[in-house]
Specification:
Layout (H helix, E strand, L loop, with lengths): L1 H16 L1 H17 L3 H12 L6 H17 L3 H17 L3 H17 L3 H17 L3 H17 L3 H17 L3 H17 L3 H18 L2 H17 L3 H17 L3 H17 L3 H18 L2 H17 L3 H17 L6 H13 L8 H15 L1
Length: 376
């Protein structure tokens, strides 16, 4: 692409001839790199800027904060945490309370991405309080929205709904379409999680209209994934496939492997609904490998459930049980509510097992499934 090449050339010249201006230019470009998903390019120039030994504490802190964000975007969670630990005391030293509060929000996102849900919930709450006190309403809206999404994932539906609504009201009061669309997206997820796809669909469509006007590619891919998750529930698997493929193309173009995992997971679900077992298994397995690479346990469980359903449909009952047991263990280990679809899979497996069989493994498998169903 021409734009990144020209930008690299301009920054190289600036660092060589006007380094002070180059530092400010890097900080100014950081939001653009983020919106255009040019995280690798942004991280390269942020790292280049941080090598300047004469950096003032304020400049260094802001560079580290942006570096932490780009590391988080790329799944480099240890690097993100390292940058946060270095930036936090610098912000405290210069008495920048607003940046300290914003910096709490990023570790919460890192913790959530690593399935440390209890810690993430606490950090989101810790971020919301000072952001409100400092009247940083836009960031407060974002933190509330993230907290609401996590509460939803943890099965605290009523509290999640109230928190997301509060985020939406703040965003609408300050006329912030970015935060407003984020809250609407989570409300769509709320309805989808509660088995109300008809209520989720118009919300997704509204958010897509907003983000298209903003030219927001990153969030569009997440929305396409959301629609890919909604349409199978409406028995429109072909539309689901089309949206998921759009999302996958966006994520692949910027090398976002974790985002690719999400798209592949929903593609697996769509092909599962169409009983195209080979394609469904291929996409689920691609997603599973990526989820395990980045430690995304929630989507790992979703993939295992899908692979279990495929194995069940193709009469591989022992394999189906193994995948389903692994998925259920993930939900229970992290204190997450077991999805209704998982419970239904367990019951279908139990009902499909023969009550009597000469082979020894089958009764043992039947007993394990019965225990699993009773536990759920």
């Amino acid at each position: 692409m021409l734009f990144p090449v020209i930008l690299d050339a301009a920054l190289e010249w600036s660092f060589a001839h006007a380094p002070e201006h180059a530092l400010m230019l890097v900080l100014s470009l950081a939001p653009l790199w983020d919106r255009q998903m040019c995280w690798e390019q942004g991280a390269h120039w942020l790292e280049h800027a941080l090598q300047n030994r004469a950096l003032e504490p304020t400049t260094r802190a802001h560079l580290l904060q942006q570096m932490a964000l780009f590391a988080f975007r790329q799944g480099a969670y240890e690097q993100a945490e390292r940058c946060i630990r270095e930036a936090a005391p610098l912000f405290r030293k210069i008495h920048d309370a607003q940046s300290v509060a914003r910096l709490i929000y990023l570790p919460a996102r890192v913790a959530e991405a690593q399935a440390h849900y209890s810690a993430a919930t606490t950090l989101y709450r810790q971020a919301c309080t000072p952001l409100r006190q400092l009247s940083d309403v836009r960031e407060a809206s974002a933190a509330l929205n993230s907290l609401g999404r996590l509460l939803l994932l943890r099965g605290r539906y009523n509290e999640a709904y109230e928190v997301i609504q509060e985020s939406l009201q703040i965003a609408q009061q300050v006329n912030d379409p970015l935060r407003e669309s984020g809250a609407l997206h989570n409300l769509a997820f709320y309805h989808l999680w509660l088995g109300q796809p008809h209520d989720a669909l118009p919300l997704y469509e509204t958010v897509i209209e907003i983000r298209l006007r903003m030219g927001e590619q990153l969030f569009l891919s997440a929305l396409y994934n959301g629609l890919g998750r909604t349409y199978p529930a409406l028995n429109h698997s072909q539309q689901a496939i089309a949206y998921c493929l759009k999302g996958l193309d966006i994520r692949r173009a910027v090398g976002d492997r974790l985002g690719m995992a999400h798209s592949c997971c929903f593609l697996g679900r769509a092909y599962l609904e169409r009983t195209e077992w080979a394609l469904a298994e291929s996409y689920y397995q691609q997603s599973l490998d990526l989820c395990r690479e980045y430690g995304n346990r929630t989507y790992e469980a979703l993939c295992l459930e899908g692979l279990s359903a495929i194995a069940h449909a193709t009469s591989q009952l022992a394999t189906a049980l193994r995948h389903l047991s692994e998925a259920t263990k993930i939900w229970q280990t992290y204190g997450l509510p077991v999805p209704q679809w998982t419970i239904q899979c367990c019951r279908r497996l139990r009902n499909s097992m023969p009550s009597r069989c000469a082979k020894r493994p089958i009764p043992r498998i039947h007993a394990i499934i019965s225990l699993l169903c009773n536990a759920l």
